[in-house]
Amino acid sequence: MELLEPHIERQGFELVSVEYKGGARGGLLRLFVDRPGGGIALDELEGLSRVVGDLLDVYDPVEGRYTLEVSSPGINRPLTKLTHFEQHRGRRVRIRTHHAHEGQKSFVGVLAEVSPSGIELDDEISQRRLALGFDEIKEANYEHQF
Fold it and tell me: Class assignment of domain 82-142?
């Protein structure tokens, strides 16, 4: 992220998150990119893919063979930065934790509070407010209600 983020921002976009999955025949490097405020077009993703591919060829930060995929984060976008959590305060989110809290690792509810150290979630299942530090959160996503 540190290598690519400034280059993507100069193009007018935001690097939301980076995933890497290794495999026997090579890995998959997936970048989720969006326009600040949301909404990125397919041709913009294609252009970014070429720019990012060239950067990765020069700096070669990933060992071995891999496939590069540049994608929109989608409607249930991942929340990976403090600003993402702040933008989604008052909205429904899904949180997965590294360790169980009262036997549960997955929570869905309204993101009630955000601070530099963590969040407070009004959990739908337990009907109570749960405080979680960012170090406890494995994954977080906006949970769109259709």
Answer: mainly beta
Q: What span, in angstroms and rounded, lies between the C-alpha atoms of 108 and 140? A: 10
Angle at CA of residue 123, ends 119 and 124, nearest 5°: 150
Q: How confident is the model at residue 18 (pLDDT cuts 50, 70, 90)?
A: very high
Task: Read off the pLDDT band of 25 (50, 70, 90).
Answer: confident
Q: What does the domain layout of the chain look like in residue ranges?
A: 5-71, 82-142
Region label for 62, one of left (φ > 0), alpha (ψ between -120 and 50) or beta (otherwise) = beta
pTM over 0.85: no
- Encode 102-111: b = buried (16+ Cβ within 10 Å), e = exposed: eeeeebebbb
Are 108 and 99 spatial neighbours (Cβ–Cβ below 8 Å)? no
Nearest to 107 by CA among 73, 74, 137, 76: 137
Domain 5-71 and domain 82-142 have a common topology: no
Quote the CA–CA distance of 88 and 142 in Å, as a whole number.
Answer: 7
Question: Residue 79: which of 54, 48, 114 has the closest Cα?
Answer: 114
Class of 5-71 per CATH? alpha beta
